[in-house]
């Protein structure tokens, strides 16, 4: 992910709402949102990595996670392992969110910079944790609304402030997922005076300053809305082609299921897709 807005326990009936964009190079292969083999994990998949890898997902037990990179090109190491498996390992594993985030913290120096959120909306174990790879340690999130891009949590970049503002209105108005996804397609760039200085050229700082990004080689590949109402989960993913700025149509799919107690067997989920 490259921008995410998160409402954690902001409403008693809606313990979790996430609206997020994944920005990536167009040539990097990826699979659409779907249940992985085993019918437990619901996520897209980064096919450029041999081990299971994703940017955002949730499983049938209510375990969820997402990751963004930290934009610091001068610190990037080409031999560092991919960060997407950190999300997949949590979704496929049994370690509690707190134990997992501290485990990742102990080995974070192996990776290029990242922000990781892991949590659970399970019946008897609701918790959410955040880790920035350069901070002192993990942080347990309290109920509230958060914005995350490529710095750290709630860094006041213009795109984060715009996204959080729209997201907050959506939480109050409760529109459908289509309207929330439309809100994530915000192309407005920040004024030069308010641009962050992250080590990339000025023209790229401008292009990367919008919530929705579209360049010749890199841009928003997918938008995701993940919502939990009581224990019912709905996840909608909208996927964009490289030539979206020229009016090419997107694809969209929605999956729904109910978080199960650990002793329950998986039930068939409902899903829909449209061109």
UniProtKB/TrEMBL annotation:
Signal peptide: none annotated. Residues 264-275 have a biased composition (Low complexity). Residues 238-275 are annotated as: Disordered. This is NRDE family protein.
């Amino acid at each position: 992910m490259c921008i995410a807005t998160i409402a954690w326990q902001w409403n008693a009936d809606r313990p979790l709402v996430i609206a997020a964009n994944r920005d990536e190079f167009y040539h990097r292969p990826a699979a659409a949102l779907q249940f992985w083999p085993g019918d437990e994990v619901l996520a897209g998949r980064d096919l450029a990595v041999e081990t299971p890898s994703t940017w955002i997902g949730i499983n049938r037990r209510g375990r969820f996670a997402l990751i963004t990179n930290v934009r610091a090109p001068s610190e990037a190491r080409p031999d560092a392992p991919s960060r997407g498996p950190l999300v997949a390992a949590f979704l496929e594993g049994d370690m509690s969110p707190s134990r997992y985030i501290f485990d990742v913290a102990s080995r974070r120096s192996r990776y290029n910079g990242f922000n990781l959120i892991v949590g659970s909306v399970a019946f008897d174990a609701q918790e959410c944790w955040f880790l920035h790879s350069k901070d002192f340690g993990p942080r347990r999130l309290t109920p509230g609304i958060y914005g995350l891009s490529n710095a750290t949590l709630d860094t006041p970049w213009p795109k984060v402030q715009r996204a959080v503002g729209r997201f907050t209105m959506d939480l109050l108005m409760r529109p459908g997922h289509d309207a929330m996804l439309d809100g994530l397609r915000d192309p407005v760039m920040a004024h030069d005076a308010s641009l962050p200085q992250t080590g990339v050229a000025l023209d790229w700082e401008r292009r990367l300053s919008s919530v929705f990004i579209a360049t010749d080689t890199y841009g928003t590949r997918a938008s995701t809305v993940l919502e939990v109402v009581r224990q019912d989960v709905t996840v909608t993913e909208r996927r964009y082609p490289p030539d979206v700025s020229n009016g090419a149509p997107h694809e969209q799919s929605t999956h729904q299921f109910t978080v199960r107690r650990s002793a329950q067997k998986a039930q068939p989920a409902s899903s829909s897709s449209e061109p």
